[in-house]
Amino acid sequence: MMVYLDNAATTFPKPSEVSGEVCRCMREYGGNPGRGAHPIAMAAAEKVYECRERLSDFFGAPGAGSVIMTPGATFALNLAIKGLIPPGDRARGERMHIIISDLEHNSVRRPAERLRRDGLADISVFRTEAARGGARPGETTRAVARLINRRTRAVICTAASNVCSVRLPLAEIGALCRRRGLVFIVDGAQGAGHFPINMKEQSIDALALPGHKGLYGPQGSGALILGGRYMPTPLIEGGSGAMSFDPEMPPDPPEKYEAGTLDVPAAAGLCAGLEFVGRVGVDALRRHEEALFDYAVGRLGGLRGVKICAPSARGSVLSFNLAGIPSDSVANALGKAGICVRGGFHCSPLAHGALGTGEYGSVRVSFGYFNTRSDIDAMCDALAGIRAE
Prior knowledge:
Order of helices and strands: EHHEHHEHEHEHEEEHHEEHEEHEH
Helix content: 25-40%
Structural class: alpha/beta
């Protein structure tokens, strides 16, 4: 029997209604939206619009027009971060200043580093105190505030760590950014669907989302949602299905940012995923994941040589190490036993630096709706076997 505990990489299995809707789209209405008035094109356009509406409602955004469809969170973050530079500034090489956290995934770090290498930005990193399960109330916001200077343009942070579940105080950081006139960009990869995110209430200017993780949609789905105050410079140009004689992209979102053919089956599956999450309830999903986290902490704590990263940071992701054995070796051994986890650095070297796991990384276990305590029992039984070898 296979046990899947790698939901932070992508949730699996998907709800049956998600795969069913993707297949139905490809059979019945998978046309090219926005480029025709015939019934199939119109049906495709209606499904994409429905997806935009659902995302906007789910995350407290201004409306469907604020939702830019993307292939995932990585593309969305590249658009949000590189879009901070107006075309004229890129030509002049003027340097701005951006602030990121010490838990960022490379989907934030690498676009930011590209701006730095191109002479367009300087980067500061604020501490989250992840090693002790997160900062005390107000501590993170004060750490951000200390780094702000006259050139600061944006604060960019994850909603929750993809290594250890530590959550950042989005509302506090958003309020600080609003007071100081800064753009607030959030990577929602490990937050969306796991706990409530509301762009209006948390003063988020741009929210990057994957559809295939906590929203239970298919791979290849995602979005960048704009809050109304920030309009990034477009990342790509091309056909938009509108204003074809204009040499520039349309002036307003979402068409301003969506060049080429949209992935209608992905949007259809994401719609079904959002419906599933809405029906189960984000709070119910959070409670389920936290209960599994607590159970895993208890079971792993009973195994000699296991060290858990930030055990008090309850959430959908738990990382640990087994004394004397590299994390990828542990993950490979578990894989041979039919336990699907992930070892290594999880594209987050900053987070491993913050956690003190920079030498071997960690074994990452991540929970989803379809997991049970028996999955954790199977993993721990297999771990005991690895120790005995």
